[in-house]
Structures are given as C-alpha cells and as structure tokens.
Amino acid sequence: MLKAIYLFPVFLAIFVCGCVTTYTGSITKFPERTKFDPIPNAKLKLEPVGRRELISGVDDSITLKLTNIGRNTIRIEEWYMKEVDNFIVYYQPWKPGTTAPDPLAWEVIYPVTLDRPKRYPLDMSPGVSVLVRFGLPFVDGLKVTPGKERRFFLRATLSLRTVKAESEIFAISVL
C-alpha cells in the first residue's frame, strides 16, 4: 500500500505531461490563384445519367457526368472542391403542345460560391468520368396533382473559364 502512495504522484505527472502537445512549426500558406490558363484541346462530354423522374416536395437532384473523351490527360486546376459549384443548370417548364424549349425562357441555377471558394486540381485521364449530384431547388416547392406529372426541359454547362462543356437538352418529370 505504501508503494502505491509513492507511485501515484509519478503516474499523475506522466499522465498530465503526456497529454499536452506543443506545435512549434510554422504553417505554410500558399497564395490563392485567381487566373487560370485555358486548357488547349480539352474534349469533355457533359451528360445526365440516372433517373429522370423526381418526386415533388422533396429536395431532389439529378446526376451529371463529365467525361474526358479526348486522347490526352487533362488537369483542370480551376476545379472547385465543392463539385456542384462547377456547373450551371438551366431549366424551363415543358408546356403542353410543344416539342422544344423556348430559347428565351430559360431560368438559371447558378452555383452558390463563397467569397474565396476552395479549389483542388482535377486530373482526368482519357475515358475517366466525374459524377456530381446537382440539387434542383424548384422541385422542392413544386405542387403536383396526384396521378399527374410536370415536365421540365433542362441543360447543364460548366461554370469554369478554362474548359467548356455543355449537355444536350434533356427532360425530367416531377411526380
């Protein structure tokens, strides 16, 4: 018992001193780039994949697929870490009796970027794809009569300046 009394302060000192860590190094800050060079000969394909029937009143989304269809590996240094910020989606209601969208009636969902959005380079080898789920806020507040559907035309583009890609016009239905 006497040994335990003498060892208790030693263990207490080891425990208290062992839990404290002091970092004396310096943190390296890299300057944030604001200008990016265009990527020559970049061939990208942007298309919707997955389901096209969404549920009204729910925060629903579509999936966009960006594929490098070129023969060379490309590096997109302008790529945002928050991947939905790399896209702009245009939409409009599909009016009864029409077969194509009105070129002047597009509404736009712009990316919601911060003042200084974080970026991370995206390397894409030939044939490599990136899948991004893009939320459609207009579906959340949409009211649809039970048993009916509302249809919309959509198209998506990249919001980047160094590379360009645009999807073809596609349709979704909201149940």
CATH class: Mainly Beta
SSE order, as H and E?
A: HEEEEEEEEHEE
Task: Report the structural category.
Answer: mainly beta
For the largest beta sheet, what order do the strands appear in spatially? Answer: 2-10-9-5-6
- Termini distance? 76 Å
Low-confidence stretches: 25-30
Outline type: extended
CATH topology: Immunoglobulin-like
Mean pLDDT across the residues is 85
Strand content: 25-35%
Please tally the helical runs, counting DSSP H or I stretches of 4 or more residues: 2
Give a quick rundown of the structure:
The protein is mostly beta strands and about 180 residues long.
Describe the structure.
The chain is mostly beta strands. It has one domain: Immunoglobulin-like. 12% of the residues lie in helices and 30% in strands. It contains 2 helices and 10 strands; from the N terminus they run αββββββββαββ. It has helices spanning 2-18, 137-140, and strands spanning 44-49, 53-54, 61-68, 74-76, 87-93, 107-109, 122-124, 129-135, 150-158, 170-174. The strands form 3 sheets. It has a 5-stranded mixed β-sheet, with no helix packed on it. The longest helix is centred in the first third of the chain and has 17 residues, at 2-18. The protein is extended. The termini are far apart.
Question: What is the secondary structure topology, with strand pairs?
Answer:
Layout: H1 2-18, E1 44-49, E2 53-54, E3 61-68, E4 74-76, E5 87-93, E6 107-109, E7 122-124, E8 129-135, H2 137-140, E9 150-158, E10 170-174
Parallel strand pairs: 2-10
Antiparallel strand pairs: 1-3, 3-8, 4-7, 5-6, 5-9, 9-10
